[in-house]
Amino acid sequence: ARPPVFRGPPPKLKAGPPEHNAMAAPLAEVTLVEVTLADVGPEHEGALRAITRHAATMKWIANGVAWSGEKLRRFLKYCAEEAGQPRAERENYYSAVLAGGECVGVVGVHPVNYEPGVRALTVFVAPAAAGKKVGTRAIRLALAAYWAHSPGQAVCVDVNVKNAPMNALATSLGLERERAPVKISGKEYHRYT
Fold first, then answer.
1. pLDDT in tens for each of the 193 residues of the chain?
2. Please, are residues 34 and 7 in contact by the beta-carbon 8 Å criterion?
3. In terms of pTM, does the model score above 0.90?
4. HEC sequence for the chain
C-alpha cells in the first residue's frame, strides 16, 4: 500500500517580523514537495545519521544532545521491532519523513517516561527541510495514521518554551497550549493538546 500523502496548499506566512514567525522564509525559498511517511528502516540510516549528528536539529529533542552512531543503531533496531508488531500491540509509532522521496527526518507518537499514560508527538527534520512546511505535513500525516488505529487517544506535544519555531508550528496546527508550562527533566515545556 502507498504511504499516506498530504499535499497542502501553498504556505501562508504570517505578517510580522521573522522572530515572530517560525515559517518566515522568503516565498522564493519555500518549495512544496510531496511529503510521505514510511516505517523507519535501515535504508534511512545514512540520512538519519547526518540529521541526528546535527546539534542544532537535536537541541530540542529529548536530552538535547546529538546522537551517537550507537544510539542511532539502537533506534533503528527498536523501530524495526515495533514495525513488526501488529498495530494494536504497538506502543510507539515512529516514521521516516520523506520529502520528494528523500528521508529528511522522523515523526513519532509514543508514550513518555516522565508521565504514565501520556502519548506525545515528536518530530525533527533536517535543516534543509525546515521552514518548508515539511514538519507540519509530517505531523498531520502521523496523527491521522495514529488515530486511524487508536481513535480517541489523546496526544500532546511538549515543546521547550525556548523553541520558538516549534511553538509557532504547534499554534499554526490549531493545538491549544495549556496555561502553565510543565517541568520535564528540570526544563520548562509548553504542552499543546
1. 434 433 333 333 233 333 333 333 333 344 557 999 999 999 999 999 999 998 989 999 988 899 999 999 999 999 999 988 887 788 899 999 999 999 999 999 999 888 888 899 999 999 999 888 999 999 999 999 888 888 888 899 999 999 999 999 999 988 999 999 999 888 999 999 9
2. yes
3. no
4. CCCCEECCCCCCCCCCCHHHCCCCCCHHHCCCCCEEEEECCHHHHHHHHHHHCCHHHHCCCCCCCCCCHHHHHHHHHHHHHHHCCCHHHCCCEEEEEEECCEEEEEEEEEECCCCCCCEEEEEEECHHHCCCCHHHHHHHHHHHHHHHHCCCCCCEEEEECCCHHHHHHHHHCCCCECCCCEEECCEEEEEEC
Residue 102 exposed, middle or buried by CB count within 10 Å (0-12, 13-18, 19+): middle
Phi then psi dihedrals of residue 73, to 5 deg: -60, -40
| Per-residue cell: 23 | 515559517
Residue 92 contacts residue 82 (beta carbons within 8 Å): yes
Q: How far apart are CA 66 and CA 50, in angstroms?
A: 10
CB atoms within 10 A of CB 161: 12
